[in-house]
Structures are given as C-alpha cells and as structure tokens.
Design brief:
The protein is of the alpha+beta class. The protein has five helices and ten strands; from the N terminus they run αααααββββββββββ. Strand 4 and strand 5 form a beta hairpin. It is elongated and about 60 Å long.
C-alpha cells in the first residue's frame, strides 16, 4: 500500500523546496518520497531522472509497474525501459518549474536584421535543473522592424522560437512557442533582453522529439533574462525557467 504522510509533514515539505517544485511534488502521491531502502544509487543525471520516474510509476501503478519492470531496481538500471509489453503507465506533474541557466551561443550575422521583415535570430543553450534535470537549447527570431516602445527608451518585439529540452534517459522534447522579447532599458548595440512567459503546448509530433517524450503532453511557458556579452549578446549569460502547468508522461 502506498505510504501516506500526515498533513503536517507534507506542509513542512512545502516550506523546504521552491514553490513550483513543491506544487509538482504535492500533485503526486506522497509515497513518491520513497524510503532509502527502495532507492538505487543515482550518481548521474540519467540515474536521477530514472530514479524519480521509476518511483512515481511504482507508487501510482504498483501492479502494472511490477508487470512491466519487475522491480524498482530493474526499472532504474534499464533506464525506464520496460521488460515486457504492458498497458500504458501514465502520471501528470502539475505546476512543474525547471530552472534554466546558459549563455547566448549565436547571434544574427546580418547587422541590418533589425530593419528586415525576416527579423533577427538569437540562440541560447545551457542546463536545466529542478525536479528533472538535463540540457536545453532555444532559438528565437524577433521582428524588430515591427517593434514598439518598452517604456524605458528601448523596444519590444514579437518573437517566435523553438525550445529543445533533453531529459536523459527520457528523451528530447521540441516545442514551438511565441512571445514578446524586450530590450532591458534603453536600446543600444549591446543590451540585455527579457522574455516573459512565452506560452506553448506540448506537441509530440515536432521534429526532433524522441524517446519517451514522444508520448508527452501538457502546456507551459518559457521565460528568460539575457545579459550583455563582452562586446555583443554573444556569450551573454542567460537565466530563466520552463514552467509546465501540466506535464504528462506515459510509458
């Protein structure tokens, strides 16, 4: 029988972790916090993600989990690959927030792109941390020729983007999104930018999506703050978040 925590203990847990992660954890059965004797060593990113996923699958679908994987240890060792055919095992994380940290890896080589109808491109890559961990990359195209004032002597523009999220060993999820990219402060040759809550729907048919994430579903948003680089946006540090209002995984 899944282990149940008293309400007071669950309330204390929510004080010890960031709000977004606490909400995601509380959306699961409290027994996802398995006792140490059930946990296999997880010294790699693959191991951490696999251990978390196996614990949740075991605690939400104990009978079907046993039929598919045999044991928790085998699930982790096999990186969440079932040993035999089984009925789908599904769970949903609510209010899942993943922190992102990276840098600008490419900027538009055309200096006249701000006047172009095709816009300017900006690429970012880095790491993801939180309840699940991995890497991400994203490319944005901002239509500065259609920009409007940001209220601080700079501009904001509509931007379309693609976000690629890799969570080993679960796979890679590619999402298309759109939002509003704003200069931070006054415009200039090397200024920072911010993007707030560009929304997306998880669509498994996007090219590049693979692994177990081909069966993922949900919705969320992406946000980031990009600071200036040494002489241009290139190399500028970027911090942000991928926020899922709901994120469903099926195995």
């Amino acid at each position: 029988m899944p282990r149940r925590f008293p309400a007071g203990i669950v309330a204390e847990m929510s004080k010890l972790v960031p709000a977004g992660i606490a909400a995601a954890l509380l959306a699961l059965s409290a027994s996802a916090f398995a006792s140490p004797r059930h946990q296999a060593p997880a010294v790699t990113l693959d191991g951490n993600n696999a251990a978390f996923t196996c614990r949740v699958l075991r605690d939400t679908h104990p009978v079907r989990f046993a039929q598919a994987f045999g044991s928790y240890h085998r699930c982790v060792v096999r990186r969440v690959r079932a040993m035999r055919r089984h009925r789908p095992l599904t769970f949903t994380l609510h209010n899942l927030n993943l922190n992102t940290s990276g840098a600008v890896t490419a900027v538009d080589p055309d200096p006249a792109c701000r006047q172009s109808t095709t816009g300017c491109t900006l690429s970012i890559a880095g790491t993801v941390s939180g309840l699940l961990g991995g890497t991400y990359s994203t490319t944005w195209t901002a239509l500065w020729s259609q920009a409007d004032p940001n209220g601080a002597y700079g501009f904001c523009a509509v931007a379309t983007g693609t976000v690629s999220l890799t969570l080993p060993p679960l796979g890679t999820l590619v999402q298309s999104t759109a939002g509003r990219l704003c200069e931070i402060g006054a415009t200039g040759p090397n200024v920072g930018h911010t993007l707030r809550r560009a929304r997306y729907t998880v669509e498994s048919w996007n090219p590049g999506t693979r692994g177990a994430l081909r069966k993922a579903a949900g919705a969320g948003s992406v946000s980031f703050v990009q600071k200036p680089g040494p002489s241009s946006a290139l190399g500028g540090p970027v911090s942000g978040a991928l926020a899922f209002s709901a994120f469903t995984l099926s195995f």
